[in-house]
Amino acid sequence: MDRVAVLASTMTAFGEREAWIRDLLAEAGADCLERAGVAPETVEHCYVSNMAAGEFEGQGGVMNALVHDLGLAPAYAQRVDQTSASGGAGIHAAWQSVASGASDLTLLVGGEKMTHRSTPAATDTIASITHPFEYKHGLTLPTFAGVVARRYLDEHDAPRESLAKVAVKNHRNGVDNPNAQFRKAIDVETAMEAPIVADPLRLYDFCPISDGAAALLLCPESIAREQAEAYVTVAGIGGATDTHVVHQRPDPTTMGAVVESGREAFGMAGLPRDAVDVAELHDMFTILEFLQYEDLGFAPKGEGWRAIEEGVTERDGDLPVNTSGGLKSKGHPLGASGVAQAHEIREQLLGRAGARQVEADVGLACSVGGFGNCATTTILEAGS
Amino acid sequence: MTGANEDEEGLVAHRCPNGHLTIPGHYRCPTCGEPQVGTVDLTDAVGEVVTWTESRATPPGVRSPNPVAIVAFEVDGETVRAIGGLTGSDIGTGDRVRPVYVPELRDPDAGIRERESQAWDGYRFEPV
Description:
Chain A is built from 15 helices and eleven strands. Chain A is of the alpha/beta class. In chain A, the strands form two sheets. Chain A has a nine-stranded mixed β-sheet with strand order 3-2-4-7-1-8-11-10-9, with helices on both faces. In chain A, strands 5-6 form a two-stranded antiparallel ribbon. Chain B is 0% helix and 39% strand. The termini of chain B are far apart.
């Protein structure tokens, strides 16, 4: 079967941007088409990953706005919302559109504009995804991170410092990413002494609020082989969901959606876990890196924290994780994040990651929504 | 019915014909797929703190700090868990707690969600 290829990819600078959602999406989309040398009118499907442009700035119908701004009409267009995992879900939708034969050229753009809102207001907009039973108690995504992190540390005798080391690693990686929101290294002490946000988690355990966009262009591999000097293919992809409320999970430190989406993606790719050379994981909170190490099968349950202690996921380790700086340091414009993860993996597989470059033929991206309500895992392979 | 947004009397666990319990309710039991047909009132029950946090970066209309716990209740050999605020910050994993009614858990007019779309009263947990 003809695989789906990623012909081109890009991301805008993440951080506090003056541009609003329309311009962020158009900036990434136009740059992606230009990189591929593709005329806008040849795009057949256009997907926009975005959680909440209506709530954040009163802009609805962002997919039609993007079609207008880039001159994509009459391309089919659709917005994909899967909260924080909208980017990963967009990859799934764009992959389906090409794999099914419905489109031979699909543009995916993910983006979010958030920084014009105060942190409490942005936190509330994101918390709008919670169950009414949770929302009335003022629960937020950081609250869930706090209760799950405490449970994890208690149950697995993990040192608190191991979480700080995730932040230190991802900040160090972000220094070498010109598009990252933070390009500043931190040390364990700074992370351990930062103000408490949701005990036991402190400021550096959380990603920032960000603006930005990222884009991918997908087509059948047969076309990519003719048109592009270098490309990557989607070797496997899986999307899944878990309970809406975290406390109803048999084990709150296991994200069932990640387990299932990973199983699907590896199954489709026909690859073992150790085939993966580099990974971008959804480190909206440091604790999520440990859960994804485990739930994707890179570490046994309860031992994910050892990977950071042993340097496995550092840039010079066996499985470098979040070479881009991750959500933690690169920033987390909700709808953009999953798309930007795939962009980083593509850069790594094609040897274009500059100072962040690691040796990699196979890469994985995991995009998680809510506190594990949904997830998409994508495995990319260098094209040949 | 177990509509997510309806007012409920008491701290209520919802039960399907096979005895599975959930807080809050579902239109179909997440374990076996049967409609939930009964309820168990846990207002006078004592539960155990499974894990907790104290949030200090709270959204508009929410108290700060906001201590919160996941609490497990045992009902006829079945465990059912709830999540909710705590009455105070002096808490630890394994502590025994009981529900306390609070008429308004957060200011319904300060956040993004419509006041009329859901209930705002409920139960926090206090140490026994």
